[in-house]
């Protein structure tokens, strides 16, 4: 039996790795005995330091305070006991590395198990021998034990289930190919399955992700304004293709302001959109007609001009807000809500749901391998987006087309949870990485404290500092519109950059911003 112990500082009770707050027979944990007591009933109880936690446990035999033991959890007559196996210590106190090796030798495990045991010991994790063996095999399969140990450390630190499936999902998210590449590979494989119903639905979802409706609202504003001028005829024709009609002046002005303020729900209301997804599909159809030279000369000229007015900052924000749902990062949470409320989740199926459906059907091996790889990456991002401690991460990557290049836009948002469960936008850190047509890969680190923002850009281009200074007033204006103050923007060399978003959650870094303004 394990009880929560409180001292002069808060102590969290040791939980088993499946987070049910109870130990289970068959599990084991390494801990150092701090004190042994005897209850009024004659039972021996030890206070054991397990990682950073302190627990009390019934014992089968008396133990020596200060020594480290491997405790195996046994059950007898409905009561849990900790059966202690002492390590043969040359010194009274073992280091973590020595304790991990002793644990390995006691259980007769291969050397590949050492990274797993080392991190389980540091985190005070409760595991079974079978779980250690399976994780050790998953680590061995990577061929990169040092990198894999970072993921193992994250798994135990977050109290995630110590299963090889969880490790493989996190590993795929951390080290997998960019989603843009994976989606392109899947699209090519699906092209040969034109009669497969599940493949058709999945293919359409992949196309939407590879060709996101960026600049939609900005483009529509430009076309609507043109409907009142010399280009009225092609503008009205394009509006008809989009399922829209010209707006009175008051609504046009309200639409312009809504788009400028990134209030896209209000923009949709001003346009009278009953179904935004259907509107996006019509927009994509017009864009495809433009690219295939199916528009009239006047329509094509107006459409090209309208598309050129897009503001990537506004459109990226709009797409980012919807991407987590489109990928399926919230599917499990939505399902849990549906079970409680009895109402099925609304909206089109996510990429994750379509991947799962496709994998259940018979199909091409290459397409299934590509689908499995994507599903593992999405699962890894889903797991990394949760949290149960003070540091929190929301991490997401998705394909983004800027210029003629399609690459991943990756962002990691680190902060604290409010009592409501939302990340606190007043105290956070955002690290993002994207590949631009001219600059190639660039990392941006945004730190926020008390709604004061400092931005660091990491790149070696010598012209970037001057360009950054030129656009700083615009950034300041945009931030002020949303209640934030810009303290400064600096450009640093790439060798001083933080880990990229895909590695950031596993780096163990957490910083509460303390910029001196």
UniProtKB/TrEMBL annotation:
Superkingdom of the source species: Bacteria
Descriptive protein name: Cytosolic protein
Classification lineage: Bacteria, Bacillati, Bacillota, Bacilli, Bacillales
């Amino acid at each position: 039996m394990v009880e929560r112990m409180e001292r002069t500082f808060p102590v969290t009770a040791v939980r088993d790795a499946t987070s049910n707050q109870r130990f289970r027979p068959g599990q084991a944990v390494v801990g150092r005995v701090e004190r042994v007591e005897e209850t009024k009933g004659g039972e021996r109880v030890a206070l054991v330091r397990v990682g950073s936690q302190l627990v009390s446990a019934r014992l089968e035999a008396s133990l020596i305070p200060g020594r480290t033991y491997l405790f195996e959890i046994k059950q007898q007559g409905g009561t849990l006991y900790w059966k202690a196996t002492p390590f043969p210590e040359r010194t009274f106190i073992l280091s973590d590395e020595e304790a991990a090796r002793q644990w390995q030798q006691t259980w007769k495990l291969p050397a590949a198990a050492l990274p797993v045991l080392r991190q389980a010991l540091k985190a005070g994790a409760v595991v079974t021998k079978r779980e250690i063996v399976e994780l050790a095999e998953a680590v061995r399969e990577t061929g990169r034990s040092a990198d894999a140990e970072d993921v193992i450390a994250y798994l135990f630190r977050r109290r995630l289930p110590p299963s090889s499936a969880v490790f493989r999902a996190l590993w795929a998210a951390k080290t997998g190919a960019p989603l843009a590449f994976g989606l392109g590979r899947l699209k090519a494989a699906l092209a040969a399955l034109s009669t497969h119903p599940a493949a058709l639905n999945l293919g359409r979802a992949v196309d939407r992700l590879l060709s996101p409706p960026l600049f939609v609202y900005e483009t529509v504003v430009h076309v609507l304004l043109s409907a009142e001028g010399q280009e009225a005829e092609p503008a009205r024709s394009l509006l008809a293709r989009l399922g829209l009609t010209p707006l009175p002046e008051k609504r046009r002005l309200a639409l312009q302001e809504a788009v400028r303020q990134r209030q896209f729900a209000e923009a949709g209301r001003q346009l009278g959109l009953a179904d935004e997804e259907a509107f996006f599909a019509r927009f994509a159809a017009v864009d495809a007609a433009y690219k295939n030279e199916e528009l009239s000369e006047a329509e094509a000229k107006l459409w090209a001009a309208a598309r050129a007015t897009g503001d990537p900052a506004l459109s990226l924000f709009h797409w980012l807000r919807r991407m987590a749902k489109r990928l399926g990062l919230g599917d499990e949470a939505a399902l849990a809500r549906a079970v409680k409320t009895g109402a099925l989740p609304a909206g089109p199926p996510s990429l994750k749901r379509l991947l799962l459906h496709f994998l259940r059907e018979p199909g091409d091996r290459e397409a299934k391998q590509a689908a499995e790889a994507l599903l593992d990456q999405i699962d890894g991002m889903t797991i990394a987006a949760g949290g149960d401690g003070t540091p929190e991460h929301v991490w997401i990557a998705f394909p983004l087309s800027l210029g003629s290049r399609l690459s991943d836009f990756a962002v990691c948002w680190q902060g604290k949870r409010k009592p409501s469960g939302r990340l606190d936008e007043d105290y956070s850190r955002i690290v993002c990485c994207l590949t631009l047509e001219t600059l190639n890969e660039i990392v941006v680190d945004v730190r926020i404290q008390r709604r004061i923002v400092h931005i660091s850009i990491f790149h070696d281009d010598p012209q970037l500092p001057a360009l950054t200074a030129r656009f700083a007033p615009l950034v300041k204006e945009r931030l002020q519109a949303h209640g934030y103050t810009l303290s400064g923007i600096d450009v640093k060399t790439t060798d001083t950059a933080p880990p990229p978003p895909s590695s950031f959650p596993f780096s163990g870094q957490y910083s509460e911003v303390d910029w001196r303004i």
